[in-house]
Each structure stands twice: as structure tokens, then as C-alpha cells.
Amino acid sequence: MRLRARVSMRPAGRPLETRLLVIVTVALALGWVGMASTLAGRFTTGDPLPIVCWVLALGGTHLAFMVSGRSLDQVLLPTVGLLGGLSLLILERMPQGFVQQRLGDRVLGLGDSQLLWLLLGLGVLAVVAISVRGVRWFREYRYTWAALGILLLAAVFVLGDEVNGARLSIRLGPISGQPSELLKVILVVFLAAYLADNRPLLARASLRIGPLALPPLPYLLPMLAMWGIAVGLIIVQRDLGAAFLLFSVFLALLYIATRRASYVVLGAGLAILAGVVLYRTVGHVATRIDVWLDPWVDPSGAGYQVVRALYAFARGGVVGTGLGAGLPQVGSAPAIPLMHSDFVFAALGEELGLLGVVAIVGCYLVIAERGLRVAARAPDDFQALLAAGLTLVVVIQAGLIMAANLRLVPLTGVTLPFVSYGGSSVITNGLVVGLLLALSDRRAIRGAPARSSRVSRSVERQERDPAVEGAAA
Amino acid sequence: MDAFTVVLWILRLGFVLCLYLFLFMVVRSLWRDLRSAVADAAPSVGRLIVVTSPLGQPASGSSIPIDAVTSLGGDVNNTVVVEDPAVAAEHGLLSYRGHAWYLEERAEGMRPMSVNGAPVDGGAAVRFGDEIALGRVRLRLERPLADG
Predict the structure, then answer these.
(1) Residues B115/B126, Cβ–Cβ less than 8 Å
(2) A34 and B15: CB-CB below 8 Å?
(3) Which of residues 49-88 of B touch A (CB under 8 A)?
(4) Which helix (H) or strand (E) element contains residue B33?
(5) Residue A439, C-beta contacts closer than 8 angstroms, at least 6 positions apart
(6) In this predicted complex, what is the ipTM?
């Protein structure tokens, strides 16, 4: 045991990660020079400081992973690096006045603020990936997480700033953030713990309504209540995107835990019912759906954003206009409202074209594969569900906003992970990928001998007597 | 076409090529990883053929590759999940020890399992071709397929 510990502490090479990071660096350098030259109209590197900072930070994280001696996944960091780099390329190129962030006595523009968030997000990713060795305590505090999540939402409701009719952000002194970003992670941890505890009971249907098999009600009710509170508050806050995201992750995890398609059918039915009811009753929802069905009814009003996004994709075509050659602004207004956050995918579609857009979708598919692979070889139910849930939060959110940009689904305001502007989003996604990386290290999960025996004993106890656990719930 | 335009096109082309080179390298490594995971998977040492299964779990007629230690029972955490009112959450353990199969009773107070109709009292040896019954579910132990 001592021998193995010593071996694992020795810095280990990460050849694949090195190679991939070199490719990412070359890609970002070419993109940066191409963009700066297009904007200046002559061959120039522009001011490469932001992209150099990002590449150096990626290199530093890579070295830290090597020195830590953990056997972390080698694909996730370069993928995040590429997405973050694309974010810098497109945001540095937009008019910098879209965002003004005060840092001491300096005022940062859009691109520089995003660089700050990306560096903070990468820092969180690295610290979590290297330092989180056991995830046992996540599971032990599951009801604390649930309470914290509800508290966060309530705090936003009471203290939040109202922007465009949606209460999303909360301001504490100089720091403001969007707690619903963090809420996603907290909810995934809670759901993973809850489902891992009650998996045998949930999988064994005892209540049958026609062809539908339902789990015993006392075990499903706490979870439905949790879901109802979260979704209810979010609907009150008018954050449709987060509500849809949480519900789809909830259904996916329920399916993964029980392998019962009937739960998914039931859940999808509930979602459609909620959708129809909300469409009839809530004006805000009806507008979104009407715009999705036909944005050309009111192209300069309600449908403006969506129509402009479609034009951007059309201008991009197959190969794109080239970085720096798109039209990010009309006069002093952005070409697409919110094109630095919700519609960053359309901006990328304009400048990189179909080729670039497919590559971006590919990056999220890579994250999905790596995350689900971590889940598939996790040593226990909780870690498997946690890894799957964290992966799905990132990937479903990316799919949701990309599809909304292309008018495949109604627009819901969520960010494109690592690419959209936004501190809460980038840092939370850094936390999520950091946790996935930590879970990918199978050597650390076995842990020190004294600790692992206690863990296995308590896992055994739970699996042997699920009824006691469920009743305690 | 002047030199500047050509340089721009080379830069843009290089950028897109790098994006796809990145994806190509990632996909190649993922593919190798999946292939090695398939190769590393422990070869199965036997198969259970489902002879009868009134409730469909496991599905009748299916062939389940099994490892040296296989748990049978109604709980989802068993290697082979067997659904039947007369089957306990953790009912039996089928293990391959020293070139012989052995079936152990793990549930107390349930109707005992049987091997070829003879009740298993605590434990019993099983050979390839023998039929194991738990409740109304009947499983036949078979040799593994040649390619594992």
C-alpha cells in the first residue's frame, strides 16, 4: 500500500493532454492572428495578451495536474480550453462596451471581463479536480444541499434585482451572481444521493395504474416535492431555461437509476401538460412559443432577436465570414440582442460557419462521452449518478441554447457553457468539470485504507437495508 | 487576389483544420479507450439460459454471460435480477470455485432453490447443463461461448 502511494505521488506524464493542448494553442493563435488582421485590414497580431493569458493558464493547470500525480481524465481540460478560447476570440471581437465590469479603479470591457471569469473558472476547476478525493461527504449532507438550494432560491426571490421582469441575479456588496447556476449543481448532488439511497425501492414498482408502474408513493413524494418547489420558484422567477434543464436532468437521472421508461413517459407527459397550461395562462411563456413558431409575425419586435440570429447563421453559410468579418453591431446596438451571452452561438455561426458550429457541437459531445464514461465505471451508484447528472447539466444546457439559437426549440435564457459571457455560468461550469475530473480518478476513490473500509461498510449497510434509509428520509 | 487576402485565407483554413485535428485526435483516443475497455472486460466463465420466466425479468430465452461470482435475486443490485413473488431481494449466489460451480442459498425462510428438481439445502454443486429454479423462474447453466 505504501509502495502504491509513493508511486501515485510521483509526477506522471499526461501525453494526450499535452498533445491536445498544443493543438488548442495553435488553433487559438491562428484564430487570434486571423481575427486581428481582418479587423485591422493588415497583417497584425493585435494585442495578444488575453489569449496568451488563457493559454498560459491552461498550461499551468496542465502542469498542476501532472505534479498532483492524480490519474485524471486527459481530454476534458483541452476541450474546456478550446471552448474558453473560442469564447475569448468571439467576445474580444465584439464591441467592448456591451459589458463594463469594475475591478478596483479599472473598468474592464466585455472580453477582458470574460478573461477574468474564465481564469477564475479554470482556477475552480483545477482546485476541485486536484483536491476533491472522496465524494462521500457530498452524499452525507444531501438534505443540507436540498435546504441550501431552496434557501438560495428564496434569497433571490426576496433580495434579487429585477431585470426584464426576471429576478435572476442577487447582489451582495460588490459581488453579484446568478444563484440558479449554482442551484443546478446542488440539485444534481441531492438527486444523485437521493436516488442512490432509494434505487432498489424506486426500481421495484408497487403501484400500478393501467400500464404505468409507479414507485411506492412515500418514496417518490419527497423528491416530487423538491422538484415542485424548485420548478415553482423558477417559474415565479420566470427562468424557464433553468426549469426545463432541471426537469430533464431529473428525468434522465431517474431513468438511469431505475431503467424504467414508464417514469420518463410520465414525466414527459407532465412536462407537456405544464407547457400547455403555461402557454394558455402565462403571457411570458406564450410570447416565447409564438416567436418560436413564427418569428416573422413581428420581426422588429418580439421576434427581432430570433430573426437576427437566423440572419447571422445565413450570412455565415458553410465556411463562415471568417473571424472578425461578421457584423456584430448595427450602429451602436448589438446585431442580436444579448449576442455576448444567450446568442453567442449565432455570433460564432456567422463568423465560423457550419464547419465551426459542427466542431463546437463536437466539443460538447466529447464532454458528454467523457462524463458518461466516468459514470459508467464509477465504483458505486452515487458516484455514477453524480457523474451522469453533472455531465447532463452541461450537455443538455449546451444543446438547449444551441437549438434555441437555430430556432429548433423555443428560446429559453440559458448560457452556452464556457462560451457565453457570464461569471456565474463560467465559474459554475468550471466547478462541474472539476468534479467530473475528480471522479475520473479511480485510484483516489479507493482512498486511504482506514477510510475506504468505513465507506464500504456503510454502503453495504445501506444496500442491505434500504427500507430503513427510505423511512429515515 | 493580393497577398493579404491569401494570408487571411491560410489563417482561417489553418484555424478550422486545427479544430478538426483536435476533434480527430480526441475521437481516436476515445475509440482506443473504448476498445481497450472491451478487451479488458473479464471473460465470462459461463452463461445462464433463461428457460422460463413468467414475469419477464429476466426475459425468457435470453442468454446471460456470467462471471465467477453471480448474485441472483429481486433487488436491482444483483448480477442477475430475478422478479418473482417467491424470490427474495438477495436470494442466491452462484460461484465458480476451483473448476466447479457452487450455488449458495442467501435468503432465510423462503422456499429453497432447486438444482434439477432437488432442493438446495444451504448450498449445492452445479454442473454445466443443470437447471436452477428460483420460484417459478428456471435458469440453465451453460458453457461460455468460445469467444468469451
Answers:
(1) yes
(2) yes
(3) 74-77
(4) helix B3-40
(5) A135, A374, A378, A383, A386, A387, A445
(6) 0.83
Q: Please tell me the distance in Å from A16's CA to the nearest CA on chain B.
A: 8
Percent of chain A with pLDDT over 70: 81
Q: Is B38 on the interface with A (CB under 8 A)?
A: no
Find chain B residues with C-beta within 8 A of A322's C-beta: 8, 12
- Contacting residues of A for B89, CB less than 8 Å apart: 200
Give the distance from residue B128's alpha carbon to the nearest chain A alpha carbon, in angstroms.
31
Q: How far apart are CA A320 and CA A351, in angstroms?
A: 5
Read off the pLDDT of residues A196-217 as tens digits, 9 standing for 90 and up: 888 777 766 566 666 666 666 6
B4 touching chain A per CB within 8 A: yes
Which residue would you say has higher pLDDT here, A237 or A77?
A77
What confidence tens digit (pLDDT) does each residue in A242-255 have?
Answer: 888 888 888 898 88
User: Which residues of chain B does A379 touch, with a Cβ-Cβ cutoff of 8 Å?
Assistant: none
